[in-house]
Amino acid sequence: MFKKVGRAVISKFSDIPYVLGYIGRVLTSSFFFLSREKAARKILIMQLLFTFIEALSLVAVLSLALGSGLYLIGNSFLLSIGQSSLIYQILVLIMCRELGPLLVAFVVTARSATAIATEIGGMVTSHQIESYVSFGVDPIGHLAAPRFLGVTLSVFFLNLYFSFFGMLGPFFVAKLIDPTGSANYFTNLFQALSVSTIILSSAKSLVFGMIVSLCSTYAGFSVNRASTEIPVAGIKAVGNSFLLVIFADVIFIVLPFLF
């Protein structure tokens, strides 16, 4: 038993140099992406279409429902203790800084991580990757880099979209509950919204997008020959993305208390 555990731990650590090398290759290829051929740019556009555009309706409904529910519950509780003005700080803190980046990353992981991993895994088993290499085409730059950029940008813009609708939903709820008191809704909201909150939320969304895209593409390229490995790659992509996103979110929460 101890031998099996030891082998598993050693195998995990032995993959670290390869993983770091893969991340470096993807980041380098993404930095010089604009100089790549037209076909790679088309992959980026299609990835943005699937990950960003097609998720707009889902994210809008999710953010409107959560923002409205948070306002109803939070405002009723704060009114009972005479602190109703704090609802704006709570909305900004939860919807913009904490919940927005995390939920958007989860939505993108659920929709895109499996799709990317299985697509690339299918290309590995059908020897398309070998064909790219034989023709002198870098599969990392041609396949991984546009997906890395597409998913990262999608999470970033979806987070802004989520925050906008998450702030808009409570406004309509406030209009129904207290039409006169809701006149200063956006004024109070912008007073509660700080530059540091916007920067932190944006940084979270970019990091989460990088994590989801790297986990997805890496899982796809990790497929060997058997087609039965393709669904396993999809499961690994989703599981690793969820775990690393949560771990990164914990780091973002803890860091301000350490420095």
**First CA to last CA: what distance?**
42 Å
Low-confidence stretches: none
Q: Identify the quaternary structure here.
A: single chain
**Helical content (DSSP H or I, runs of 4+):** over 70%
Total number of strands: 0
What is the gyration radius calculated from CA atoms? Answer: 22 Å
> Which class of secondary structure composition applies to the elements?
mainly alpha
Q: What is the ordering of alpha helices and beta strands?
A: HHHHHHHHHH
The chain-level mean pLDDT equals: 86
Strand percentage lies at under 5%
Which word captures the global form? Answer: elongated
Please, how many helices? 10
Largest sheet: none
Describe this structure in words.
This protein has 259 residues and is an all-alpha fold. Helix content is 84%, strand content 0%. It contains ten helices and no strands. It has helices at 2-14, 16-31, 38-51, 56-80, 87-125, 128-134, 139-177, 185-192, 195-221, 229-258. Helix 5 (87-125) packs across helix 8 (185-192) and helix 7 packs across helix 9 (195-221). It starts with a helix and ends with a helix. The mean pLDDT is 86.
Keywords, please?
259 residues, mainly alpha, elongated
What would you say about this model in short?
The chain has 259 residues and is mainly alpha-helical. It contains 10 helices and no strands. The model has no long low-confidence stretch (mean pLDDT 86).
Walk me through the topology.
Layout: H1 2-14, H2 16-31, H3 38-51, H4 56-80, H5 87-125, H6 128-134, H7 139-177, H8 185-192, H9 195-221, H10 229-258
Helix pairs in contact: 2-7, 3-7, 4-5, 4-7, 5-7, 5-8, 5-9, 5-10, 7-9, 9-10
